[in-house]
Amino acid sequence: MNPNPKTVTAYITSAPPWARGTLRELRRTIRAAAPKAKESISYHMPYYSQNGRLAYFAAFKNHCSFFWISAKDKKTFKKELAAQKVVASTLQIPRGAKVPTALIKKIIRARLKENQQRGQRK
């Protein structure tokens, strides 16, 4: 993998072949839920922001990760997250597993709402 990708496309292209489809699906899912979000690279991985942090994703040896499930999201989506592998604020998608697109869209929309509310309080 490219240790210093400049774009999300470069990150995905340099990922292991088994992970590329999962990463593309994560990208499509995030963009569908937050079409106005800014896409960039942060901490050497794809990052999405809109009025604050939305999500990151990355490929690892045996899984891909979707980062940023807040404590509030964990409570809100407790039942749906129970069927997934969640470690801290990360949803891990094992190699070959289906991306839980509906759940990720819900989490992104919740993050958008939370970011918007936080911005209005300032």
How would you describe this structure to a colleague?
The protein is α+β, with helices and mostly antiparallel strands and 122 residues long. It has a single domain, classed as Alpha-Beta Complex (Aspartate Aminotransferase, domain 1), CATH 3.90.1150. Helix content is 45%, strand content 25%. The chain contains five helices and six strands, in the order H-H-E-E-E-E-H-H-E-E-H. The chain has helices at residues 8-14, 17-33, 71-76, 78-81, 101-121, and strands at residues 38-42, 45-49, 53-59, 63-67, 85-87, 90-94. A six-stranded antiparallel beta sheet has the order 1-2-3-4-6-5. A hairpin with a 3-residue loop joins strand 2 (45-49) and strand 3. Helix 2 crosses helix 5. The chain starts with 7 loop residues before the first helix and ends with a helix. The model has no long low-confidence stretch (mean pLDDT 94).
What is this structure's SSE topology?
Elements: H1 8-14, H2 17-33, E1 38-42, E2 45-49, E3 53-59, E4 63-67, H3 71-76, H4 78-81, E5 85-87, E6 90-94, H5 101-121
Antiparallel strand pairs: 1-2, 2-3, 3-4, 4-6, 5-6
Largest sheet: 6 strands, antiparallel
Tally of structural domains: 1
Give the C-alpha Rg: 14 Å
Report the portion of residues in β strands.
15-25%
Instruction: Please state how the strands of the largest beta sheet are arranged side by side.
Output: 1-2-3-4-6-5
